[in-house]
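Suppose you are handed a protein chain with no further information: no name, no annotation, nothing but its sequence. What can you learn? This example shows the usual starting point.
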Amino acid sequence: MASIKDALEESLQDNNAIIKYILYTIPAYFCIMGYNNSNQQALLLPVYIFLFGFLLKCTQNVKHENNTVLPSFNIFATFWAGLKGFIALAPIAILAGALAYYLTQLSAGIFTDEKSAKFIFCIIVAISGSIFYTGYILYAQNFKVKDAYNFKLISKYFGDILVGFLIMLLKLGIANAIICLPASYLMLLFIGISSPVAIFIWCMISVINLAVIGHYTAQMDYETIAVKENKDNII
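A reasonable first move is to predict its three-dimensional structure. Written in structure tokens, the prediction is:
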């Protein structure tokens, strides 16, 4: 089973990990600090694309069993990977969103009870999100657009990917609670929870989480898709 412990350890023990995390945290930090500044809000999208590239690179590195988990120091290559991924996966994101909207509208006329409607809505969003996430996993292998739209594999594995994703969120939540609660207490005591240093640390923790998610996603892909597909091909 995919291990959040392995994902966290290997992400932190990667070559030049601390330097890279600082490097990749800087854009996120200035993005957060300038969020309330209308003149800097235009930078939000480029930063999101940059961090998406970081996530993609982490997933691909682990899937290819490279010697490193994190992207290189070439931030321009990481941004370019994020931009290509953003463009490549935008249609499937729109398709999944449209499907969720259509099914939500359809179910609204069937399930009139508020609790039932919310439950069905959560299921629809989860399924639609899993379709996109499965497309992301397929794309991250070789960064080829056609891979993200292999609807045969998406329809075959999106249910397994959904279960794996929910398990990942649970494990990630527990790991963050174990690490962040003591860290929050120490920051509250010594530097203040909203100080610039604390905000930078929170941003770095967020970037580390992206690396862990990328690593875990690659593990999940191997166990859920790669092994089963190889087994089917052998048979």
